[in-house]
Specification:
- The chain is an alpha/beta fold.
- It is 49% helix and 22% strand.
- It has helices spanning 27-39, 58-75, 86-94, 125-142, 144-170, and strands spanning 3-10, 13-22, 45-56, 80-82, 102-104, 115-116.
- The chain has a six-stranded mixed sheet, with helices on one face.
- Strand 3, helix 2 and strand 4 form a beta-alpha-beta unit.
- Helix 1 (27-39) packs parallel to helix 2 (58-75) and helix 4 (125-142) packs antiparallel against helix 5.
- The chain is globular, with a radius of gyration of 17 Å.
Length: 172
């Protein structure tokens, strides 16, 4: 199943709805949207809706954590995250998301019209690697369990980036 990220806002309150299978290929557009949202003078709050999410990878979770940390720094409060899936709730709790989001099982339906963010499937290898490293560094900063779980992945990706830069520098 493919996934999508749908966004909209009403008077500075943004709604972000993840649907289907949400993975790294959607994260660049999502991060760009979040950056613009947080820079908008009208921004006041964000609600993330995972009720239609079937699968969410760790890079997408890292992007969500980054969003939450940005909102908290800007507004002094954590965003709301709607999740009614026991499996995804367990993942969120195990990764410490209950510290960076107000997690609720449901919320009143919003009449905000949502637009689908583009899936950027043509990310260069380096760009994708950097996005994965950044997302996992955010997850690692949340707690010791995440630090342990993702340290080897981040170390391996950083080493791969160094080796690739060295290889291309030597072959110029």
């Amino acid at each position: 199943m493919t996934g999508s990220i749908n966004v909209g806002d009403s008077d500075g309150t943004h709604i972000i709805r993840f649907e289907g299978d949400v993975r790294v290929g959607l994260c660049n557009a999502f991060d760009n949207y979040c950056q613009g949202m947080l820079e908008d003078a009208k921004f006041c709050a964000v609600i993330v809706d995972l009720t239609a999410t079937n699968v969410i990878d760790s890079t997408a979770l890292g992007s969500l954590a980054k969003l939450s940390l940005g909102v908290k720094a800007l507004k002094g409060q954590v965003p709301t995250l709607i999740c009614n899936s026991p499996n995804i709730q367990r993942i969120l709790q195990n990764m410490g998301f209950d510290d960076v989001f107000a997690i609720v099982p449901n919320v009143e339906n919003s009449s905000v019209k949502l637009q689908t963010l583009p899936a950027l499937s043509d990310l260069a290898v380096d760009g994708t690697r950097e996005k994965v490293i950044e997302a996992h560094r955010v997850l690692m900063s949340m707690n010791d369990a995440n630090k342990t779980a993702f340290k080897q992945l981040v170390d391996a990706l950083e080493l791969e980036a160094i080796e690739q830069r060295t290889f291309f520098s030597a072959n110029r």
